[in-house]
Design a protein that fits this description.
Blueprint: E1 4-6, E2 23-24, H1 26-29, H2 43-46, H3 60-67, E3 77-78, E4 84-91, E5 102-105, E6 110-115, E7 120-125, E8 130-135, E9 141-147, E10 152-157, E11 162-167, E12 172-178, E13 186-188, E14 194-199, E15 203-208, E16 213-219, E17 227-229, E18 235-240, E19 245-250, E20 256-260, E21 266-274, E22 279-286, E23 288-294, E24 300-305, E25 310-316, E26 321-326, E27 330-335, E28 343-349, E29 356-360, E30 365-370, E31 379-385
Parallel strand pairs: 3-28
Antiparallel strand pairs: 1-24, 2-16, 4-31, 5-6, 6-7, 7-8, 9-10, 10-11, 11-12, 13-14, 14-15, 15-16, 17-18, 18-19, 19-20, 21-22, 22-23, 23-24, 25-26, 26-27, 27-28, 29-30, 30-31
């Protein structure tokens, strides 16, 4: 059976976890409230997200443990299911090593892949299923965001601690913002004027896109992973696995409004915000599970078994589903979200080590990045949501 734990009680037991965190807002208080959007998952998606080679990568032992975990009790898995149908993948013939997050250019029908272990960003044609361009000069690319209003691609460099902007056709570097070490997850406001980037031993940095500079910084107790922005409430939710915490940060003030725990589990890397239902989904790796929190109080409502080595979560609003992408080699499907506490209703086979992806609701497509492994070349797996 699929394990489900229902939990209640106030989050005040841990509300002081991040008390005393310093918040420094730079540039004479130029950080202002921005209209924010939630881009579901850790890709620039959710982004996202995740973590650099030193703070989020699963070892071979962890992957083996995940494969042998209780999550094997999920519904029968196959390359396709009633929820997701496997389509022809997009080959990444020159990519090796770990792959991090993805972003999309809807108008140009391009997919961007942060090939962290390859030190490149791959620009793909979704229709032609080919690599159009390879961007270099971004050591360990991690977070990635396409800003359609500016025609710019922004990428965080974990190796150099920078956020790099590319523009033009073909894409070339147009700006570079210094952030500090291990620049990681990246999110943009809905109007594309501001970016938020996680970096270092514990910081979220606000970037003014037009000015191409940092305008504020919030200190955290450990390296931040997934970032999720509210559209209406003005909060930025941050997974802080090193502190076993979730921080709710004001987008305008860059101060910590509240801090919560994801429950008994640990290694809380990915996150998805369901703002309409007031829910926050948090992926945990130890044990492999999915925590459902009340986005207002931070209370843990339920904990469900989930795929191992989870690194991305995506909402599918049209179908009232959530997709959990894990390096164990599967995508778990949870539904219906309208039920309050969804059930794991399906499991689709992806590939070992395929732990990041991007759901594009406008195309009904879930993209999952599969690294070169076991004789298989790197590729982007493509699933049709139905």
């Amino acid at each position: 059976m699929i394990g489900t734990k229902i939990a209640g009680g106030p989050s005040s037991r841990v509300a002081a976890l991040l008390l005393g965190l310093a918040c420094v807002v730079g540039c004479q208080g130029e950080t202002r409230e921005a209209s924010a959007t939630h881009s579901a998952g850790d890709a620039g998606g959710e982004a996202d997200t995740s973590g650099g080679a030193t703070n989020g990568s699963a070892s071979a032992g962890e992957a083996q443990t995940a494969a042998a975990s209780g999550s094997a009790t999920a519904p029968d898995s196959a390359a396709s299911s009633a929820a997701l149908r496997a389509l022809e993948p997009i080959a990444l013939p020159d990519v090796s090593g770990r792959i991090d997050h993805l972003a999309v250019d809807l108008a140009g029908r391009r997919l961007f892949v942060a090939a962290l272990g390859n030190d490149t960003v791959e620009v793909l044609s979704v229709d032609g299923r080919v690599v159009l361009q390879t961007l270099r000069g971004v050591d360990e690319p991690q977070g990635i965001v396409w800003l359609p209003t500016r025609g710019e691609l922004w990428v965080t460099s974990g190796g150099r601690g920078t956020c790099v902007a590319f523009g033009g056709d073909p894409l070339t570097e147009v700006a570079r913002v210094e952030l500090g070490s291990d620049a990681d997850n990246l999110r943009a406001t809905s109007d594309g004027t501001r970016l938020f980037a996680g970096c270092g031993d514990g910081a979220v940095v606000a970037i003014d896109v037009a000015a191409r500079r940092e305008v504020g910084r919030c200190a955290l107790p450990a390296h931040p992973e997934s970032l999720q922005l509210e559209r209406e409430g003005g909060r930025l939710f941050v997974n802080v696995p090193g502190a076993h915490a979730i921080a709710a940060v004001g987008q305008a003030t860059l101060s910590v409004r509240a801090s919560w725990t994801p429950g008994a589990g640990s290694s809380n890397f990915p996150m998805a915000l369901d703002e309409g239902r007031g829910r926050l989904y948090v992926g945990l790796r130890r044990p492999a599970s999915l925590a459902l929190l009340d986005a207002g109080s931070g209370d843990v409502v339920a904990t469900l078994d989930a795929v191992g080595d989870v690194d991305d979560l995506f909402l599918d609003e049209a179908r009232s589903r959530l997709y959990a992408v894990g390096g164990e080699g599967f995508v778990d499907v949870f539904a219906p979200l309208d039920a309050g506490v969804p059930a794991r209703t399906g499991r689709v086979r992806s590939a070992s080590g395929a732990r990041t992806g991007l759901f594009v609701p406008e195309w009904d497509r879930l993209f999952v990045a599969a690294p070169r492994l076991g004789g298989e070349s790197a590729r982007v797996l493509v699933f049709e949501a139905r």
